Amino acid sequence: MRSLFRKFKEGFKKQTPTFHKAFDQIFSGAKLDPEALERLEEILYEADFGVETAEEIVAEIQAAYKADKSIRGEDAARIGATVLARVLEGAEGRVELGRHQPEVICLVGVNGSGKTTTSAKLGHLYQNEGRGVLLGACDTFRAAANEQIKAWSERLGIELVASQHGADSAAVAFDAYAAAKSRGRDLVILDTAGRLHTKSNLMKELEKLNRVLKKQDPEAPHHSWLVVDGSLGSNSIEQARIFHQSFPLTGLVVTKLDGTSRGGALVGIYRELKLPIFFVGLGEQPEDLQPFSAENYAKAIFGIE
Question: Fewest CB within a 10 Å sphere: which of 126, 153, 247, 295?
Fold first, then answer.
C-alpha cells in the first residue's frame, strides 16, 4: 500500500506544490480573513474539484479555524484530504473476474483520451496477475491505431486480434470474443475508435458493437468504461454524461493525471454521475496505470503523508 501511495504522490507532483505554496501563504497571516478565504476557494476551483466540493472544503477549514486559530497550511490540507475522501466514498471500482468466460472490458471515449495505451496497460496488469488476456483492436478508423496497439501487444507479450484499416469494428469485436472463447482466455479488452460524444452516427456504431457482442453473450460487454483525459478538467462531465446515455457505462478510467494541475476533475465527474473509477493513469509506463484509491488520491493531491 505504501508503494501505491508513492505512485499517486509522484503522479500528482504537478498539483501538490501549488496547494502547498498557496495553503502556506493563506495561513501565514494573522487571521483567515475574507480575502484569504476567497484565495482558498480560487485554488480549489482551479484544480477543478467543482463548486460543491470546493465549498465543502472551505467551510470545514473555516469551521476548524474558528475553533482553533493556530491551524496552519498542513492542517488545512489534511482537512481538504478528509473532505475529498468522504466525497469519493464508494468511488473505487473493483473488477471481480471469473463470472464470465471470457470477461469483456470495452473502452470508449473521445479522440486522444488514451484508450489504446490504456487497453495495453490494462492487459499488462491483468496478465501479470496470471490472467489470460486478449486485446481486440476495434479502432479501425484511425490510420495508426492498428500499428500502435500492435507495437504495444508485441512489447508486452499480449495476444491481439486486429483487422485492416476501415474494417467493421463490430466484426473485430466479434472475432476477438470468439478467439478468446476458443482459446480459453479470461479477459478480452476492446480498444474502440475515438469519437466525439456529439456525433450521433459515431455513437450508433458503438451501439452496433454492443449488439454484436450480446449475440455471443447476452451480458456482454460486462464492463463499459469511459476513458477520460484528466487534463480536460470539468469539461469531461458533459462528455461522460452523453456517452452514458448512448452506451451505458459501468465505470471510468481517468488518464494523464501526471501532466495536469487540474487533478480534481475526477471528483466532479464522480459527484455528477456516480460512476465508479476503476483506474487512473499516473505516467507513461505500463505500471503507471493504477487501481483507483480514494484515500491515496486525496492524500497525494494535498501532499499529505
Answer: 295
Q: Tell me the sheet residues that pair with 228.
A: 254
H runs (alpha helix) in 235-287: 236-246, 265-273
Whether residue 218 lies inside any domain: the answer is yes
Q: Which of 57, 87, 117 is the last residue of a domain?
A: 87
List the grid coordinates of 64. 476548524
**In terms of domains, do 21 and 124 share one?**
no
Whole-number Å distance between alpha carbons of 161 and 8: 33
Q: Is the pLDDT of residue 101 over 50?
A: yes
**Could you give the number of structural domains in the chain?**
2
Q: What's the pTM?
A: 0.90
Q: Which residues, at least 6 apart from 70, have a Cβ–Cβ distance to it below 8 Å?
A: none
Strand ranges in the chain using DSSP code E only, listed in sequence order: 103-108, 133-138, 159-161, 187-192, 223-229, 251-255, 277-281, 289-291
- Report residue 15 as a C-alpha cell: 498539483
pLDDT, tens digit, 9 for 90 and up, residues 25-65: 787 766 788 888 888 888 888 888 888 999 999 999 999 98
Q: Which residues, 6 or more positions from 88, have their beta carbon under 8 angstroms from its beta carbon?
A: 267, 270, 294, 297, 298
